[in-house]
Design goal:
The complex is a heterodimer of chains A (187) and B (303). Chain A is an all-beta fold. Chain A has one helix spanning 95-98; strands spanning 2-3, 12-15, 18-28, 36-43, 49-55, 59-62, 66-76, 79-84, 90-94, 110-116, 119-124, 128-136, 150-154, 159-162, 171-175, 180-184. Chain A has three domains: 2-62, SH3 type barrels (Roll), CATH 2.30.30.30; 66-124, OB fold (Dihydrolipoamide Acetyltransferase, E2P); 128-184, Nucleic acid-binding proteins (OB fold (Dihydrolipoamide Acetyltransferase, E2P), Beta Barrel), CATH 2.40.50.140. In chain A, strands 1-6-2-3-4-5 form a six-stranded antiparallel beta sheet, with no helix packed on it. A five-stranded antiparallel beta sheet of chain A has the order 9-8-7-10-11. A five-stranded antiparallel beta sheet of chain A has the order 14-13-12-15-16, with no helix packed on it. The termini of chain A are far apart. Chain B has one domain (5-302): BirA Bifunctional Protein, domain 2. In chain B, strands 1, 5, 6, 9, 10, 11, 12, 13 and 14 form a nine-stranded mixed beta sheet that branches. In chain B, strands 2-4-3 form a three-stranded antiparallel beta sheet, with no helix packed on it. A two-stranded antiparallel sheet of chain B has the order 7-8. In chain B, α3 (66-74) packs parallel to α9 (260-266), α5 packs across α7 and α8 runs antiparallel to α9. The radius of gyration of chain B is 19 Å and the shape is globular. The two termini of chain B are 21 Å apart. Classes of the chains: A mainly beta (187), B alpha+beta (303). The A-B interface holds A 5, 25-36, 38, 53, 56-57, 146, 148-149, 163, 165, 181, 183-184 and B 1, 3, 5, 8-9, 11-12, 48, 50-51, 90-96, 171-173, 175-177, 180, 198-200, 216, 223, 226, 251.
Chain lengths: 187, 303
């Protein structure tokens, strides 16, 4: 069981026996008022979203999901294919159901496929993944624009802000919980 | 190249923050305020139902320097300000840090309307620009700033009256979902005259005792400061503290000792107004930062 203080982006909870994932979260506390936990929730089966505000003291049941260790194989149209390493069974999950996880899917990445009533409805990726930078502008020494970050495109197509010293072809670590640059992989 | 990029990239924000703090200090020094320091660890925080202090070796970390600063007012210091750390249990989000930096100032023989004007002057001095760009909004700092009562804001933005909201127990939700996002959009907004029940340390308005002489400053939907004409009646203050303490007990929260030295000092406190301003948040709006994390050197998660 979770309490309101456990709520955070990415947490999966059950509402009316259906699995929901928190896609946005913030803490609010109007002056001298009570603590409120504002969430945007996505129904992991239907994809429909809702806004809910909770108070401290409220409790939540975890979403009732099974997970299976699988690896990512390839993408076909808007479906992503995963394989169970033990049984070699392959399953497909559509892009919308993957959410942000699609930004981190590189060949053979080990993931946990989430199963609800025998249907695959999403995946959990590792907290940190290493991805290669395929495009970013070079950093000009003495740049006076004062910019402390620049955009970079990764091998999955994901675009994010990176430090100016990152170069094309470098391998970097992304924190998948925030979607942000974490560190450079020494190599 | 520095590998701690989250820290290294805040270099400019921290330099701006330092410059803003300098302008704030100059503002108060020019107005004859004395900068003071009071202890961070105190035996008895103000008993407020919804503000939770962190226990520290038998005492508590302050949630605000309010009680010590009012004891200074009572002892004959008529204009004082302080920039200090405050701690509040369980508060963390894009606009909250459990440990944050507060600016408080107190002025004898002034009421909350006077403080609105002084706050306008302070923020203007701290900003050093006539217009702010914050989260895609263009916010005009020229005077006069918007002023709206809590009652009018509920009618206008929440589609209900304050008394109905209080009765239904939805005051805080309506405030967060419907009212706060509308405050301080074109120019900063003073939301004022709060229900008496939301103002444990504020003086009630003589012409309408259902409200307290309290205001909050909003800029770009962000709550920046909370102020009031101070309650100086020790009997009334004790009974409000007792009510807050019993609400804490009913919520199963940690009890605080009654702040007796503060209550006895109140008998000698002059009429005064005081204000608490979240400096991290002021820096956020001045620097167009989307998260409080961007304007401090370390977040708790990074320690």
């Amino acid at each position: 069981m979770y309490t309101a203080a456990d709520l955070r982006k990415g947490l999966k909870i059950a509402i009316d026996n259906e699995p929901y994932i928190i896609t946005a979260f913030d803490f609010a506390k109007p002056g001298k008022g009570q603590a409120l936990y504002r969430t945007k929730l996505k129904n992991m089966i239907t994809g429909s979203t809702l806004d809910r505000t909770y108070r401290s003291g409220e409790t939540f049941e975890p979403a009732n999901l099974d997970d299976r260790k699988m690896q990512y194989l390839y993408k076909e149209d808007d479906h992503y294919c995963f394989m169970d390493n033990d049984t070699f069974e392959q399953i497909h999950i559509n892009e919308a159901a993957l959410g942000d996880a699609k930004n981190y899917l590189i060949d053979n990445l080990a993931v946990e496929v989430l199963i609800f009533r025998e249907k695959a409805i999403g995946v959990d990726v590792p907290n940190f993944v290493n991805l290669r930078v395929t495009q970013t502008d070079p950093w000009v020494k003495g740049d006076t624009s004062g910019s402390d970050s620049k955009p970079a495109t990764l091998e999955t197509g994901y675009v994010l802000r990176v430090p100016p010293f990152i170069e094309e072809g470098e391998l970097i670590t992304i924190d998948t919980r925030t979607g942000e640059y974490s560190t450079r992989v020494k190599g | 190249m520095p590998e701690n990029w989250p820290l290294a990239r805040r270099c400019r924000a921290l330099a701006e923050r330092s410059a803003i703090f300098s302008r704030v200090r100059s503002f108060f020094q020019e107005k004859g305020y004395l900068e003071v320091e009071t202890p961070f660890r105190i035996p008895a925080p103000a008993p407020e139902a919804q503000i939770d202090a962190i226990p520290a070796a038998g005492w508590f970390l302050q949630t605000s320097p309010e009680l010590c600063m009012k004891r200074m007012l009572a002892a004959g210091y008529p204009r004082i300000f302080q920039i200090c750390r405050c701690w509040r249990e369980g508060e963390r989000g894009t606009r909250h840090l459990g440990e944050f930096t507060m600016l408080e100032w107190y002025r004898a023989e002034a009421d909350y309307l006077f403080l609105m004007e002084e706050t306008e002057a302070l923020v203007t001095a701290a900003a050093s620009t006539p217009k702010l760009c914050y989260r895609g909004l263009s916010i005009d700092l020229s005077l006069p700033w918007e002023r709206i009562t809590v009652a009018d804001a509920f009618e206008l933005h929440a589609g209900t009256s304050v008394s109905e909201a209080l009765e239904a127990g939805t005051f805080d939700e309506l405030m967060v979902e419907h009212i706060e996002p509308q405050m301080g959009i074109a120019r900063p907004t003073f939301l004022y005259d709060y229900p008496a029940s939301c103002s444990a340390l504020a003086r009630l308005k003589k012409s309408d005792p259902t409200v307290a002489e309290r205001f909050e400053l909003y800029i770009g939907g962000l709550e920046i400061a909370n102020a009031f004409s101070e309650l100086t009646d020790p009997v009334e203050q004790r009974s409000r503290f007792e009510a807050e303490a019993s609400e804490r007990a009913s919520l199963g929260k940690l009890p605080y000792p009654m702040p007796e030295k503060f209550l006895s000092a109140l008998t000698r406190m002059p009429d005064a107004s005081g204000i608490a301003l979240g400096l991290d948040r002021l820096v956020m709006v001045l620097l167009d930062a989307g998260s409080i994390d961007e304007v401090v050197a370390f977040t708790p998660e990074e320690l």
